[in-house]
Amino acid sequence: MANKLQATGNLGPSVVKALLDAGFTVTALTRADSTSTVLAGAKVHKTDYSSHSSILEAFKGQDAVVSTIATAALGQQQGDC
């Protein structure tokens, strides 16, 4: 199946599990300094969210992006990218 790009957080694990169960290849973006864990079966891409080139590199080869960013966190996620 197609590749999906998936962030982690409060909702992320449920979404990752559903995508994995459906047979998708899942790549989870995490902050470069994150110690968070991702469900077994998902790939992890450590990303510097303040770096445009890091974000572009993370998106290479992905067919879709599924974002589970909470509305309250949007301000923290926006930057120069």
UniProtKB/TrEMBL annotation:
Highest taxon in the source lineage: Eukaryota
MF terms (GO), sorted A to Z: oxidoreductase activity
Keyword Oxidoreductase: yes
Domain NAD(P)-binding, chain residue ranges per copy: 7-72
UniProt keyword list: NADP, Oxidoreductase
InterPro entries: NAD(P)-bd_dom, NAD(P)-bd_dom_sf, NmrA/Isoflavone_reductase-like
SUPFAM superfamilies the UniProt entry points to: NAD(P)-binding Rossmann-fold domains (SSF51735)
Gene3D superfamilies: NAD(P)-binding Rossmann-like Domain (3.40.50.720)
Record family assignment: Belongs to the NmrA-type oxidoreductase family. Isoflavone reductase subfamily.
The protein's name: NAD(P)-binding domain-containing protein
Organism of this sequence: Hyaloscypha hepaticicola
Lineage: Eukaryota, Fungi, Dikarya, Ascomycota, Pezizomycotina
